[in-house]
């Protein structure tokens, strides 16, 4: 699939590519013109309405992320040759195409890892670079933290505030999570400044559900926000915290049938390390960090620095991979739900979350399609029979993973938490 992603004044050509208007609306379909997609208008408007000033290359990075998330939504996996792997050829308008073309192969590698698709990136001029506000607001916060509405990001923000840090909370608005994001920001550290943005990526047809490359938009929003801080404008490096437990960040394939891209990899060490290189090459003084890369979710809950605050808000957080499928309720049986439930058990506090399927060990018609539960059973059985290393295979062998030893130990502890959950529910 070919896409050309640029501002609305770009000279789009009707040559069979999907034209995507960045930071604008696609406009009404005209005779002889193919339907267009769009992305980013609301995010740009909200950022500028707050009178924030982002770095030029941070805007370029956001343009790329908007193009990627639109492609990810527009390309149906069902129409690919193998029913999963797609091919994308993206032309993206940026302010500094010469630089970004030097990073195309590095970014293609990140995207391939995230989505298991094949990507080709070409950068052209004509991208958006907003004029600085007349009276810019330079936030005094000393770091940025992603606040998704999930449990891990909640703990991350709580820990930062408890340690005396003053984070700017940045959210990608998702239906069903927006209220949580705002409530958590208001409840932490006496109230955090909260920047909530929405990519509004909209292809001109039905969206693909898998959305494995959307991680890039989370990172791009955080990077843009980090470059707006007073500390950044004063020449300092700004820390940008992407908080996720190490087990889910790595998302090791539970069985041989589960491709890595069947699960999201937002905070995978391979992704974050490669993106750190790109940001460094761009001279963007933003340091991405995941303080929990060697911790399980249960360990995060037990070691949270403000236990009363965590107890007050943990149940309201969202972890489910199928949250919207079940009318904004946790399903209880997907891998993220199982990891969440295992973490509450390891924490030792009651889990009063409503789960659509609360009884993991029940054997009847309604509970017959517990594929993810069976996958966890099979993983623990294989580890017991053949050892952890045989089960892991090449999962920790990627070139930018870092030291595999602590990651191996982390995965072992994560499986142990899941095993305890299954024992509690009598899963066989």
Name the beta content range: 5-15%
For this structure, the CATH topology of the largest domain is: Rossmann fold
In the CATH hierarchy, what is the class of the largest domain? Answer: Alpha Beta
- Total of DSSP H or I helical runs spanning 4+ residues: 16
Low-confidence stretches: none
Largest sheet strand order: 3-2-1-4-5
Overall geometry comes to globular
Describe this structure in words.
This protein is of the alpha/beta class. Helix content is 40%, strand content 11%. Helix 11 (297-303) packs parallel to helix 13 (335-347), helix 13 crosses helix 16 (404-425) and helix 14 crosses helix 16 (404-425). The protein starts with a strand and ends with a helix. The model has no long low-confidence stretch (mean pLDDT 93).
Question: Layout of helices and strands, plus pairs?
Answer:
Blueprint: E1 2-6, E2 18-22, E3 37-39, H1 41-49, H2 56-74, E4 87-93, H3 97-102, H4 104-115, E5 118-124, E6 143-146, H5 151-162, E7 167-172, H6 178-187, E8 194-197, H7 215-226, H8 230-233, E9 238-241, H9 246-250, H10 269-281, E10 286-289, H11 297-303, H12 307-313, H13 335-347, H14 371-386, H15 388-392, H16 404-425
Parallel strand pairs: 1-2, 1-4, 2-3, 4-5, 6-7, 6-9, 7-8, 9-10
Helix pairs in contact: 2-7, 4-10, 11-13, 13-16, 14-16
In brief:
This protein is α/β, with parallel strands linked by helices and 428 residues long. The chain has three domains: 2-124, no CATH class; 143-289, Rossmann fold, CATH 3.40.50; 318-425, no CATH class. Helices cover 40% and strands 11% of the residues.
Question: Which features does this protein show?
Answer:
single chain; 428 residues; alpha/beta; Rossmann fold; five-stranded parallel sheet; 16 helices; 10 strands; 40% helix
